[in-house]
Amino acid sequence: MLKRTHRLHELNESLIDKTVVINGWVDRIRNLGGIIFVWIRDRYGVVQVLFQPDTPAYEIAKNLSGEYVIGVEGIVRERPKDAKNVDLASGNIELLAQKVEILAESKTPPVYTNRDEGSEDVRLKYRYLDLRRRSIQYNLIFRHKLIQKTREYLNSNDFLEIETPYLMKSTPEGARNFIVPSRIKQGTFYALPQSPQIFKQLLMIAGFDRYYQVARCFRDEDLRADRQPEFTQIDLEMSFVDQEDVQEMVGNLVKYLFKAVRGIDIGDVPSMQYQTAMELYGSDKPDLRFEMKMENLTSKSFSSKLDFLSPRVEEEVKMIVIPKNDVLSRKALDTYSESAKSSNLRLGWAKFNGENFVGSIGKVLSTVHDLNVKTGETVIICTGKKNDVNTFLGRTRVEIANKIGIIENTFKVLWINDFPMFEWNEEDKRFQAQHHPFTMPYLEDLENHSDDLSKIRAHSYDLVINGWEMGSGSVRIHTRALQERVFKLIGITEEEAKKRFGFFLEAFEYGAPPHAGFAIGVDRLVSVMLGVTSLRDVIAFPKTTSGSDLMMDTPSEVSEDQLKELGIKLEEHR
Question: Are strands 45-51 and 36-42 parallel, antiparallel or unpaired?
């Protein structure tokens, strides 16, 4: 075999007139009749190889096709001045082939490997070919560097990287577990971890003080474009700290990563209360790259004049102001009114021409003098139940900003603090932990609002970048009495708590330090930092939105013998 002496990015003018051996894939071929040009590709770069006629190498080159794996021995030479390629790092040189060896042949690939085209399903079925695309390789190399820099930062701050088990006990943490049957103890099951939550708290109780892990996590939940059934997170936990300590550590980590792998200074990371975010942006992950904050008009004197917008009991009137633009037509604005109706809301709009408002509620608004609206701007006013108005206008705000192109090409990072401790589960008709049941509640809220769990705040916090939740964390409960009280509030009986968490509750009785932690979603962080729209483009072997692996054809059936070994009998699926 012609064994390489250089990787392709190492070929440059300093090697002119020297003999080298390269290995790689045939990227493209130009047969000009008299001579043959072949671009050879590896993950480091591309180099042009010249095959001259009447040579053994030329005869072999005539039979090459795309994606053949070859070895080439040749002399590095400078390209003619008019043939240099400024788009290639190696564009000033080429390799004059002396020997060539076909190391592996290839059928015609069913997907493009040298351009970003083709059906995503086909690309996922032949993922090993899709991974040859330069853009995907760049994303995965970037991801590697980000993980490398993460370890560098945390190691320098005295964190210990400690692995935790994949096979664990099924515990309620907010999503369904993937269940793994035990062959040895038939009728019993392991669960794959939704996160290392309990283990990292046990590590704090064990005295390890600062822990981290690049952890694999598994959640059996309904999928969407920004969610995978298995994902990776930068998981960390700290003892003898409060919320501010963790946010400072994580904030500095994120600043370090942006600087180290993107060369961008994001500055200090500001904070915002959950309630403020919902009131102003209608979202607990607001995108701050543009304005268009919501303004509450409920108390304004004119709201009663807007007959169909007039708020009823427990309703609110809110407004967003759209900057001057030529994109949104009357028809487009009327579409939002129709969409609001499907959410049991009333919505009207009007454009200010400098003197009067024109639109569905223009006549009434023209009599109003206390709206801070400039010429050419459009107002959207919505009325209904508070949470519904916030959600609808929050979603509409982002949709319009994208349509009219006002979102800055920058990164806006912030902390959202003090989420509700509990949320109502309409399906089960009970409250459940919004984050997870190990989160520390505000003790004063716990005492003052025991009759209304929706008013209890938690010492929990999210990191948000450009309208995406990058990760979550919280101060943890570290006493048995409080943990049992929270379990009881969400309907976990004493017997169930002992069965599921007995070992954990017992650990609190042996000196548990105050502790807090955080977890950053690696897939989403890489995606946002690169401006990639699909998580599948930053994961080596992703699943589809239905949770399928098209390449391996999973999930799939297993044999009757395997089921018998596990003591499992399948019922007929109806």
Answer: antiparallel
pTM for this predicted structure: 0.93
286: which residues sit within 8 A by CB, 6+ positions away? 272, 277, 280, 394, 414, 416, 464, 467
Who has greater pLDDT, 365 or 43? 43
| 534's tokens | 């699909």
The pLDDT, as a whole number, for residue 364 is 79
Segment among 25-29, 183-187, 309-313, 557-561 with least mean pLDDT:
309-313
Q: In what order do the strands lie in the sheet with 271-273?
A: 160-161, 210-218, 230-239, 515-521, 468-475, 460-465, 413-417, 271-273
CA atoms of 370 and 192, how far apart (whole Å): 57
Alpha helix segments (H runs only) across 164-316: 197-205, 243-257, 274-281
Reading the block at residue 163, the tokens are: 């692995």
Beta 160-161 vs 210-218: how paired, if at all?
Answer: parallel
Q: Write out the DSSP string of 138-183.
A: HHHHHHHHHHHHHHHHHHHTT-EE----SSB----SSSPPPEEE-S
Closest CA to 393 of 309, 277, 282: 282
Query: What pLDDT sits at residue 227?
Result: 83
Would you say the CATH fold of 136-267+513-574 matches that of 8-104?
A: no
How far from chain centre, in Å, is Cα 16?
Answer: 45
Of the candidates 117, 120, 181, which has an alpha carbon nearest to the alpha carbon of residue 543? 120
Whole-angstrom distance, CA of residue 223 vs CA of residue 461: 24
CATH fold label, 290-407: Gyrase A; domain 2 (3.30.1360)
Under a CB-based contact definition with an 8 Å cutoff, are residues 67 and 109 in contact? yes
Residue 95, Cβ density class (10 Å: 0-12 exposed, 13-18 middle, ≥19 buried) = buried
Q: State the CB neighbour count (10 A cutoff) for residue 255.
A: 18
- The whole-angstrom separation of Cα 523 and Cα 542 is 11
Cα 27 to Cα 69: distance, rounded to the nearest angstrom = 10
Q: Which CATH architecture has domain 136-267+513-574?
A: 2-Layer Sandwich (3.30)
Per domain, the residue ranges of the chain are: 8-104, 136-267+513-574, 290-407
All residues at 6 or more sequence positions from 58 whose CB lies less than 8 Å from its CB, including other chains:
36, 51, 52, 97
Please tell me whether residue 398 adopts helix, strand or coil conformation.
helix
Residue 464 one-letter amino acid: V
Tens of pLDDT along 254-306? 999 999 999 999 999 999 999 999 999 999 999 999 999 999 988 776 555 56
Looking at the domain covering 8-104, what would its CATH class be?
mainly beta
CB 53 within 8 A of CB 10: no
Which single residue is written with the structure tokens 């894939």?
25
Establish how many alpha carbons lie within 13 A of residue 231's alpha carbon, considering only the half-sphere containing its beta carbon: 28
Cβ distance 205 to 199 under 8 Å? no
